[in-house]
Every structure is written in structure tokens, then in C-alpha cells.
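pinned: reference chain
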Amino acid sequence: MSHESLEKFGPVKKNVVEDNLESDESIMAGAEEKDAAHTNELDGSQVDSAPGKEADDASEELEWRPEYKKKAIRSYVIRAGRMTEGQKNAFSRCWPQYGLSLFDGSIDYTEVFEREAPTVLEVGFGMGASLLQMAEAESDKNFIGIEVHPPGVGRIINCAREQEVGNLKVYMADAVDVLTDCIPDNSLDRFQLYFPDPWHKKKHNKRRIVQREFMALVQQKLRVGGLIHLATDWHEYAEHMMEVMSTMEGLTNCAGEYLFAEKPDFRPTTKFETRGEKLGHGVWDLLFTK
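pinned: its C-alpha cells
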């Protein structure tokens, strides 16, 4: 399939692909790609990200690439993941209904969803199972998901079409760029970021998506009274999140100063989370309002 035909329905722009081919060492700022173990456990899918793939396979998988603008520090690596035929076909069949493009600029929720409703934005939805479940459970809300992993995007829009979910839209793009260029200020009712890559090595800590600058951008997009919900299964990252959020002016911790929250009912419990709890692993939720 040519890039020209992809431009009609998919997130790929030929000039962006050619100008932004990245090495394995490059890091993007924005939505973080889920750890492979998280992704596989979450949705029962098999993602083949092993190095040394045949060149033809790699080029086939990279035919669908996320939209983004060049920047210095990036918070995830785009890896070639094997896509099923259903996920590939989803881009031609489902993208016109569910896909949004970074390059279309600022959006009007009423126009995009054809109704007025509270809007929830999630960054880094992985393979999309929990986001799709929330969209179905909270049909009174609009949901926007941002993800850079093509198999995950293909899967969620394919499942959304099969299940006739009408309150979901998806960007396959860099989250910082989407927030900056596409999401109006003071417009989101809820922002959620679940189990982002902890970048646990000290030298990689700067690549974590939860940094003061990024969260200030999120706060700018949130309406007064809106909710920020973060969750992680990495204790040191949870402490880092709490430190960042607690020093943000204009935000209030719903659980109390420097306290983690109970898991809210609207966040589904993932298979990975259940397995971790059986092994004695913790999960930390943070809830802050503007």
C-alpha cells in the first residue's frame, strides 16, 4: 500500500516519515509505549519486538507510523511490532470513523463527537482493552486516546467498530504535540495516564513522561474541577509522580497531602495488575483536581 493512499485514512504523512526515521536509541516526548510484559498481559496479545527481524517484515510493520514533530528528549522508543491482519485492515476500514490527525490542529469536541458531553483523554492506552471498556461503561462521556504503538491502535479501532462504540476517537501521535496543537485549553474533564514506562535506570529518569513541564501542559488543558488520574506499579516512580504533582500550584490531592488514592471504580483492573497483586506487587493511584 502506498503512502499516498495511507494519507487518506491513516496517521502517516509521507514527508513526516521520511524526515523522522529514528534509530533504536532515539526517544520521543509524549505518550509512553507500554512495557511489552504489561501489554501482553493486559490484552492477551503477542507482540514481537525482538531485534533482528527480516528487513521486509520490519518495513511492513513500519508502514503505519505515528505523527509527531521533532524534539530533543523523547519518552518512548517506537519499536516494530508484529500486527495481525485484523489490525492492519483496521486502518483502512476503521480509521475514517475513529482516527484523528495531529495535522488537523485544534478540535471542537461537539463537532468531532456530534454531541456535547464531558471529555476524557488518555495517554498511552497500549492495546486499548481498558480504554475501550471505560468508553463502553461511561457512554455519557467522550473518550480520546493517544498511542504510538500501531498494533494497539489497530486493535482498539477494530474492536470499537465491532462493538459499535460511538464515543471514542484515537490519535496515533506524540502526546505533547496533540496536547499542544489539538486539545483546547480548559476543556478536559478527566486526564488519565496508566502504567507508563518507569524508565527505572537513573540515567533514563529524564525520559519519564511525568515531569513538571508535561503535567503543567495537562493542567492547562483541564477545566476547573477536572481530574488528573495517574497509576503505576513501580513504587519509586509513584513517589516521583507524587513529588511532581504535589509541587504543582493550582492542583489539589483528592486523598490528602502526599497520600495515594484508592483505585476509583472507573479504572478497570487489568490482568497484569491482578497477577501482580497475587505476587505481592503494589499499584499506586494518584487523583488530583484543578
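why pinned: DSSP finds 13 helices and eight strands in the chain. The beta strands are 99-100, 119-123, 142-146, 168-171, 188-194, 222-232, 252-253, 284-289.
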